[in-house]
Write the structure tokens for this entry.
Amino acid sequence: MAGLVLHTVLGVELRLLPDHQIDCRFALVLRQKEQLDIQKVQQIEGNWVEVLQALPKTYPIALWLSGKGLLNKNLPSSEDADLEVLFAQAFASVKQDDFYVQYGFGAGQLLVSLMRKQMVDELLDKLLRAGLSVYGLA
């Protein structure tokens, strides 16, 4: 089965700041044959209304979240390690079901990133209600 091929994507980083402020950086990326062409780059810092008004609504979004509410932890590991066991060891008092978790491997290290599901779901709902389509989240 063939996957969806996107030729234009809006890459968006939302860095959550204190006091309900957001630092938003985005780039409109166009794929032409085997090359990527950056069409537009912009940074906005402000509240949700200001950021949502500035984001183009006609492109699929690859979203990256950072800042307030995101916890990263580096652990020694290998790619064949049991991720659930490592998570339980690293975050003994945390209920994994309450969080979105992303794992990244490199050079004998495991980067574990987590953010509360409720927070991420509310953020995604704001984007959806503003007319934005998020296709990927990291």
In short: Strands lie at 8-16, 22-32, 35-46, 60-67, 71-76, 99-106, 109-116, 133-137. Helices lie at 48-54, 83-90, 117-129. The two ends are 25 Å apart (CA to CA). The chain has three helices and eight strands.
